[in-house]
């Protein structure tokens, strides 16, 4: 780990301005991903600004009946919150499907949205990676790609986004609130928050330099059956090969979002419109434009089988 300096911020505006004016500065809160990356010298911040004193750790009802989740709410607290479990069950289930109990006790809502890919070439500094070092190439293309993306990829990157929580936030149509270095604020739809790799895979979100996540808001509850279906190589503490976040309404309407397929949580309106027709047409709509390798082509039939499992679970719970 390389030397760095450290301060604690006392307000979101101060934290955002400090990162914007300090070369090489980064925010830190739970640090469950950032510290690992610093030990590997993938992240080498010159200065860390700790935001844990900003009192962004509350879960509150909004005026329109939704829920506002502070950026520093721990994953364990969010998963166990009574309102989240009752009205946004898919979010609670997704959180409990991720990481370990110890990590969930420390990890925050904002940090979960910003965690970096688990592509093995990103973590191996001897390998080319456009995400870690722009312009260096992508060793994953033509390399070991079993866990990697089949949708939204580019010639520069085939990494996936690792968060389970973000997939649930996507199906719930969450909004990300931020504080900007100029003192302003911004609300960003979760659908627009994460970016596809294109030619700049090192840019993973639409956040501007110094922009700080302060909260995530959820719209009013929509009811229905909430399911999070995660397929992985072992029963716990493993990232998704494929995950499905689902809210299924009586009569067959609903919404689906997918993890493990792309550089961001994946949701397709045309697929949601086919939910009443069964898993096969839904999978066909989700997988339109998919590009596979010989190692990750298994994800194509696995998507349809996962959707079928979700529909069966929804019928059983109805």
TrEMBL record:
It comes from the Bacteria. Coiled coil: none annotated. It holds the Pfam family FAD_binding_5. Keywords: FAD, Flavoprotein. GO terms for molecular function: FAD binding; oxidoreductase activity. Residues 1-223 form the FAD-binding PCMH-type domain. SMART domains: CO_deh_flav_C (SM01092). This is Xanthine dehydrogenase family protein subunit M. It comes from Sphingomonas aliaeris.
């Amino acid at each position: 780990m390389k030397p760095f300096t450290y301060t604690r911020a006392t307000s979101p505006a101060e934290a955002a301005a400090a990162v914007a004016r300090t070369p090489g500065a980064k925010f830190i809160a739970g640090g469950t991903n950032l510290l690992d990356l610093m030990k590997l010298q993938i992240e080498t911040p010159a200065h860390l600004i700790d935001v844990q004193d900003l009192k962004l750790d509350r879960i509150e009802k909004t005026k329109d009946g939704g829920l506002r989740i502070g950026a520093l709410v721990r994953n364990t607290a969010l998963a166990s919150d009574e309102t989240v479990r009752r009205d946004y069950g898919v979010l609670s289930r997704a959180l409990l499907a991720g990481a370990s109990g110890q990590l969930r006790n420390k990890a925050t809502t904002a940090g979960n949205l910003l965690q970096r890919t688990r592509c093995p070439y990103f973590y191996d500094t001897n390998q080319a990676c456009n995400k870690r070092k722009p312009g260096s190439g992508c060793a994953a293309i033509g390399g070991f790609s079993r866990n990697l993306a089949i949708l939204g990829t580019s010639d520069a990157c085939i990494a996936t986004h690792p968060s389970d929580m973000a997939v649930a936030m996507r199906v719930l149509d969450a909004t990300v609130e931020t504080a900007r270095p100029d003192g302003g604020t911004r609300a960003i739809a979760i659908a627009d928050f994460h970016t596809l790799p294109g030619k700049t895979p090192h840019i993973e979100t639409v956040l501007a330099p110094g922009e700080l996540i302060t909260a995530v808001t959820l719209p009013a509850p929509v009811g229905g059956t909430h399911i999070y279906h995660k397929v992985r190589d072992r029963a716990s503490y493993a990232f998704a090969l494929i995950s499905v976040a689902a809210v299924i309404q009586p009569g067959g309407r609903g919404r689906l979002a997918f993890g493990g397929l792309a550089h961001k949580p994946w949701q397709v309106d045309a697929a949601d419109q086919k939910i009443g027709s069964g898993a096969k047409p839904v999978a066909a709509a989700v997988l339109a434009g998919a590009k596979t390798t010989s190692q990750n082509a298994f994800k194509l039939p696995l998507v349809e089988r996962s959707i079928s499992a979700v529909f069966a679970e929804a019928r059983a719970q109805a």
